[in-house]
Structure formats: C-alpha cells, structure tokens
C-alpha cells in the first residue's frame, strides 16, 4: 500500500500555505487543525445548547479525539509494516500516515470504551455527527492542497494535475460537498432524531461513500479485486449495523 501522505517534491496544488519568516505553514496540517477546531467547537456548542455540558461531555470528547488520532494511524501502520521495518531507525514512515477511516473507527471504539468505564448509558452520537462532518469537510481541503488521497487518471474536465502532468480525479473535492451536505442535514435534527441515530447514519454514509470512492482512488495493491480500505469499509458497515440491530432487539421498550 502506498502512503499517499509521503509525497515527492513539487507535488500538490499548494502544499505550503504560507511562510512566516523561515517557518513554513503546511496546508495539510493547517486545515486538519482547523477541522479539529471546528468539530470541537460544534460539539461543545451543541452540548451546551442541549444542556448536556459537563465533565462527562469532556471525557467523551477527549476519548473521541485520542481514539481518532490512534485509529487514524493504525491502518497505515498495518498496511505499511514492511516499509516501517525496512526504514528503521528512520521513524518518518511511522509518523506520516493517517486516514479518516481509521480515525472514525478509533474514535468510535474509544467512546464506547470510556462510556463503559464511566457507566454512561445515554447516547451522545447526535452531538458528534455534525461535528465530525464539518471537521472532515474542512480537513479534506488540506488533502486537496497537499495532493494526498488523490484519484486515478481521468479525461473528465474536473481532472487536476498534482505535479506529474497527469490529470486525476480530485477525490478530495468530491468528498467535501458530501460532508457539508450531511452537516447541514444533521444540524437541525440533533434534538429531534432518536438518540445516537445521526452518528449511526453518518458512519453508514461515510463507509458507503468510501467503498465506492475507492474505485477511483489511486491504490497500489488490490486483494481479490478490492482495496485495503474497501475491506475495512465492509467490516465497519457490518459491525455498525449488527450493533444497531442487537441494541434495537435488546432495548426494554423494543425501540
């Protein structure tokens, strides 16, 4: 698997956002950080509006962030383990890779764990759904300017040149309006939707999109016709929906 965050020189649309003296502000890092700020602000504003703000909200948010960071790294560590071993003692291959897919899974598992540890039974997924959606939409701007997560060659007018003279699908830009659409769909439904439903919907929405988007994303290896992240998407969708089905069947009121 190619780590698309390890890029050659002169690659990308605008990889360096600006210079402050000798300091370079990386476009990817800037927009990912901005996305985290926007997502965090959205979560805490909604939590305060819904009168659920408190220590537990903070614990859940911290768990989501920590799990998301670890989860974002783990698939690349698994997929690039040979490169990591061969590069030792160079640690750059360990530090460079990250993925939204793993971040979503890691953040979800971390929240499930902290809720179990603290015996929190109420569902906060409706607060997280718009927060995650707006964070991903902004973060994908960083992917676009950096030139990572790019698509396969295309003859369509929307194709972009990332530095090698080949016009490619701007898969990063395809995702942004989809995330924004979900953000504006979910935001007014935070209070009215069944508890946790919006996050359940977001996870299904994302992994279905990611599965089909992989057909036009650049992948170095396929396994029985599918990419590494397509298999992750399939397993994630199965886990999400089986969990939802079990919870529905075991709920005291049957709802």
Regions with pLDDT < 50 over 5+ consecutive residues? Answer: 1-5
> How many helices does DSSP assign?
9
Note the beta-strand portion: 5-15%
Kindly state the mean pLDDT as a whole number?
Answer: 79
Structural class: mainly alpha
H/E element sequence: EEHHHHHHEEHHH
What does this structure look like?
By secondary structure, the protein is mainly alpha-helical. The protein has one domain. The chain contains nine helices and four strands, in the order ββααααααββααα. The strands form two sheets. The protein has a two-stranded antiparallel sheet with strand order 1-2. Strand 3 (160-161) and strand 4 (167-168) form a beta hairpin. Helix 6 packs parallel to helix 8. The chain starts with 15 loop residues before the first strand and ends in a 5-residue tail after the last helix. Residues 1-5 have low confidence and may be disordered.
Question: Could you list some keywords that capture this structure?
Answer:
9 helices; two-stranded antiparallel sheet; globular; mainly alpha; 255 residues
Task: Write a concise synopsis of the structure shown.
The chain has 255 residues and is mainly alpha-helical. Helix content is 61%, strand content 5%.
